[in-house]
Amino acid sequence: MIKQLLATAAIAAVSLCATAAPTVLWTADAPEGEAIEGWHDFLKLSAEESAVLNAGDIVTMTITAKGTTGWPQVGIFEGDTGWPPLASTGAGDVPNSVTLAITYDMAEKIHQNGATFKGESVYVSEISYEKSAIEVGPYTVWFGPKQCAWGDAVSVSNEVFADVKVGDKLQVQYDTAAPEHTLQIILGGWSGLNLATYEAGNYDFMTIDEETGWITIELVEALANFDLTVDGDVKNYDAFKLLKEGGVVMQGPCIVNQVLFVPASDASVNYYAVGGFQGWNVEEPAQFTLADGVYTLVAEKASTMKISTLYGNWEDFNSATIAPSMTDQIFDDGSVPFVVTPDYEFVMDYEATWTVTINPDQQSIKFSTNDPRPQVDIYVRGGMNGWEAVDEWKLTSTDGNIYKLANVSIAEGVEFKIADSSWGTINYGASEAVAPNVPAILVYNGNNIKLTEAVENAEVEFDLSTKTLTVNTGTGINAINSDNATTVFYNLQGVKVANPTEGNIYIIKKGNKVSKIAF
Question: For the chain, what is the total number of helices (H) and then of strands (E)?
Fold first, then answer.
């Protein structure tokens, strides 16, 4: 049985502040719920529909009754790929509500390939989601909170630990306000290596911060050949092999907030950049400098750039480039999370001396510059002028931000873009048709711009700072002059920003239009 989520329910408007009320994804036709007797498709979301689910969201599946087969359980899967689930849990006593937490890794996968909710031996009446109060970062592999008990465990899949190595860290945060916080952290599953909190004092590699609630297990080399006395017998464990094969389970009277798996900072790993500032030479790229745990590169006269952990040839370099992770997350220093993805190119707002900062611990990147925005030649280039940069279609500016061209006539169906003479850093199109007198936020290297109607003797106005195009005809209501059309910037946490800075990603709201751009 496959149920496709209705597009009208799945495509939610961009929200600039978190709301407490859950958002319903699906509701059963009957109050007793819909039966799921086996691990077959139940609710399917396309990649576009899955965009409503982001890192930090908690999905709740309301279980109304137990089915007729097996142990009741549910899970969320990537696309139609089937087993194993990205996250799964037992339904416990019924009726009940079970939750599935969306991490960064899960969000990336379902945004690309969609998601499917499946289960076994349950009746489901509703599926909803809401933002967690837990601050979720790129290393979060599980979050709650969840009230654990003996036999009611938090589990992390072995897939998370596929590349585990010496120097990595496993961190668990518990609720310090809870009356009890005893926890067994079992590496490799139920029969694996039990590193209980009540024995933490016996291990040099395990520490507990009782003020913050963080339990840290350093995955040291000794854990590859570790002897532990269990019921009077000495048993030998290889923690790295156990993690790769069985993941982690945690049980005990404890409220667990989140689990992190933090890769080791390896000085032999570096970051390399190529671009016009160094001749796009992949054999001798610009190398970042590591100091105080942070990688830094200063690139003079840079406008575009690729960054990778590999170099020497284009095949290797492009296989490990990094890109900003488009999630609702921004760090205190203004940097944003990044992910590894093939063949990604950063495009800066203008040519300048850019400082690029990479923080490997929080896996974030930031671009910054002190150079002022230069005056540039910007043109309307399209079907009306053979897509050339000609003086008759050149916009002028007095402040370097607002560019205008008067007495413009564009016939119906004629397409155009806002660009410089080289189709370089100024090359802006639109994701949808643009109506005269209504500001439209353009997209770098976007589709050709189409007007909803022909214009004569109009004024083309382009705001380079906000990437906003307005074709003023002098008739109708000009949204620029209304209060609703004031351009408002928000960071990716939904906080209003008075003075946006270059190199960061913002949500922009102008009138009834909302979009996300990289400055």
Answer: 4, 43
